[in-house]
Amino acid sequence: MAETVDRERIAAAVRELLRAIGSDPDSAELASTPFRVADAYSEFFSGVGQDPMQHLVDSVPVGDETGELVMLRDIELRSVCEHHLLPFRGRAHIAYRPGDRIVGLSALPKVVETLAARPQVQERLGQQIVDALESGLAPEGVLVVLEASHGCVADRGVRQTEAVTVTVASSGALAQPAARSEVMALIGGAAGRHSSGANR
């Protein structure tokens, strides 16, 4: 994959930021900080410019041999909110009703990771995961539930350290109320009891 993050520019920007808050970036304590931040940002934003569809190219035909639903719960999720560049983290739950093709289960966390590794908002991320699966697998329906705690809610402003945001995005057959409720029950927990989201 091509490197999209310019570490030198990030380090220079962090040095300026440290000066702007009244700190000395040349002090012994902070001298290495700009480069550490650059390395961290390179990891946090490695999905910028990357295509999540690359993880779905090895799908295989299944015809009538598959079941009614494929679900992967509790995928670890980490991203950075585009509003304050503070992290949010939690879990993603993905379900899809196969059409003619399925993909290896490890591909689903890779899709989540690629889309999450860029400045994001949780509401958009869920829909982007749905769109990727729709384009890559042409399933009969997709449901994505994200549960995450946000630094911009926990560490600034209202400082609600225990608040969890739940979003739902769905398409096709899994956007229908009965099917959607069945999948939400399988997911269980907070995602099954409280949800807000976007259907199409």
SSE arrangement:
Blueprint: H1 7-20, H2 33-44, E1 60-61, E2 70-81, E3 87-97, E4 101-102, H3 107-116, E5 119-120, H4 122-137, E6 141-150, H5 151-154, E7 165-172, H6 177-187, H7 189-193, E8 197-199
Parallel strand pairs: 2-5, 7-8
Antiparallel strand pairs: 1-4, 2-3, 3-6, 6-7
Helix pairs in contact: 1-2, 3-4
Structural overview:
32% of the residues are buried. By secondary structure, the chain is of the alpha/beta class. It is 36% helix and 25% strand. The strands form two sheets. A six-stranded mixed beta sheet has the order 5-2-3-6-7-8, sandwiched between helices. A two-stranded antiparallel ribbon has the order 1-4. The chain folds into two domains: 7-44, no CATH class; 54-199, GTP cyclohydrolase I, C-terminal domain/NADPH-dependent 7-cyano-7-deazaguanine reductase, N-terminal domain (GTP Cyclohydrolase I, domain 2). The protein contains seven helices and eight strands; from the N terminus they run ααββββαβαβαβααβ. It starts with 6 loop residues before the first helix and ends with a strand. It is elongated, with a radius of gyration of 19 Å. The longest helix has 16 residues, at 122-137. Strand 2 and strand 3 (87-97) form a beta hairpin. Helix 1 packs across helix 2 and helix 3 (107-116) crosses helix 4.
- Percentage of residues assigned to helices: 25-40%
Look at the helices and sheets and give the structural class.
Answer: alpha/beta
Task: Provide the CATH superfamily of the largest domain.
Answer: GTP cyclohydrolase I, C-terminal domain/NADPH-dependent 7-cyano-7-deazaguanine reductase, N-terminal domain
Counting DSSP E segments of at least 2 residues, the number of strands comes to 8
Summed over residues and divided by their number, the pLDDT gives a mean of 90
Q: Strands of the biggest beta sheet: in what spatial order?
A: 5-2-3-6-7-8
Radius of gyration, whole Å:
19 Å
Query: How far apart are the termini?
Result: 32 Å
Low-confidence sequence ranges: 190-200
Q: How many structurally independent domains?
A: 2
